[in-house]
């Protein structure tokens, strides 16, 4: 059952994060303007809040999951360096005396 969740991609590249942020802010701004104008026309502040919350829900649905549109520019990672087989490398010890602070 857990293997199903491991197959779901959970990453976004940097350009995808920027795009998601721009979409999120745009939807919030547009819904706030529409909600403000509509609420002003019908003199009901509650409708303004409902419209802004609906815009928030739509923007979350469009930007929070890592959709393929946000994974178009993956970073080219360097290949992993293989560790030499044998004994692990130890750091040289520092034999100098350290001063004690008083």
Automatic annotation (TrEMBL):
Tagged with keyword Transmembrane: yes
Membrane-topology descriptor: Multi-pass membrane protein
Keyword Transmembrane helix among record annotations: yes
Residues spanning the membrane: 21-41, 47-64
Pfam families from the UniProt entry: SPC12
Localization: Endoplasmic reticulum membrane
The entry's keywords: Endoplasmic reticulum, Membrane, Transmembrane, Transmembrane helix
Region (Disordered): 80-102
The protein's assembly and partners: Component of the signal peptidase complex paralog A (SPC-A) composed of a catalytic subunit SEC11A and three accessory subunits SPCS1, SPCS2 and SPCS3. Component of the signal peptidase complex paralog C (SPC-C) composed of a catalytic subunit SEC11C and three accessory subunits SPCS1, SPCS2 and SPCS3. Within the complex, interacts with SPCS2 and SPCS3. The complex induces a local thinning of the ER membrane which is used to measure the length of the signal peptide (SP) h-region of protein substrates. This ensures the selectivity of the complex towards h-regions shorter than 18-20 amino acids.
Task performed by this protein: Component of the signal peptidase complex (SPC) which catalyzes the cleavage of N-terminal signal sequences from nascent proteins as they are translocated into the lumen of the endoplasmic reticulum. Dispensable for SPC enzymatic activity.
Entry's family note: Belongs to the SPCS1 family.
Name of this chain's protein: Signal peptidase complex subunit 1
Source lineage: Eukaryota, Metazoa, Chordata, Craniata, Vertebrata
Gene responsible for this protein: SPCS1
